Amino acid sequence: MFKWFIDLVFPYRCIVCGKYLNHEYFCRSCFNSLPIKKQNECIGCQRPTPLGKTCTFCRDSYAVDQLLVASDFKNPAVASTIKLFKYHFLHDLAQPLSQLSFKYLDHLAKRDHFSMAQNNPLLVPVPLHKKREYWRGFNQAELLARLIARHYRLDIGEGLVRSVDSIPQAKLENRPKRLLNVQGLYKCKKPEVFKDRHVILVDDVCTTGATLNECARVLKDAGAVSVIALAIARG
């Protein structure tokens, strides 16, 4: 009854066109118009590379072996959806954002024969500090990772944690500060989970790649064979 009252006072509307909907935030037409990223790029220098593999020049500085980005944060609809998801606590938006990643990954499967199930990887969400997760009520990366894992019938790897709270990356403007800000923030409580395993690291947004890189470094120190980063958008 309470949910019915809330839906009456605050009805669902399409984020893009404003059309009234039934328990959804995108009409079909607007969701289909969301772009997927057609060109993959190196996580470091952002030059085009096959399937987003880290280039030779950046390989020594980045633990991420490959970066897959579903869409572009410069697209207003994509940016608005991610901001509503993270900062307005609309956890239901994990559904359309994960579907956007499926659309992108299906494109890679058809064009480049990429398979999410290759090497039976573990999906690992980028963790939040407990204090920030309590404040938000959820970890957006974990919601996305669980939906992606369910869709592709993959396991979630648990044990990567954020042990230190710090300034959110979004509040730091330049790359050197972001790289410095993430050092030592993450640790692996269960290294045996990741030993000799391939990992797909999931996050909502990749900007400089500092967070993904630090998480990948910790996972490889725990014994992970390779780390592919999967983000919904790159800012």
UniProtKB/TrEMBL annotation:
Gene3D superfamilies, A to Z: 3.40.50.2020
SUPFAM superfamilies (alphabetical): PRTase-like
Residues annotated as signal peptide: none
Xref: InterPro entries: ComF/GntX_DNA_util-trans, DZR_2, PRTase-like, PRTase_dom
Domain Phosphoribosyltransferase, first and last residues per copy: 155-232
Double zinc ribbon domain location: 6-59
UniProt family annotation: Belongs to the ComF/GntX family.
Record protein name field: Phosphoribosyltransferase domain-containing protein
Native species: Candidatus Yanofskybacteria bacterium RIFCSPHIGHO2_01_FULL_41_21
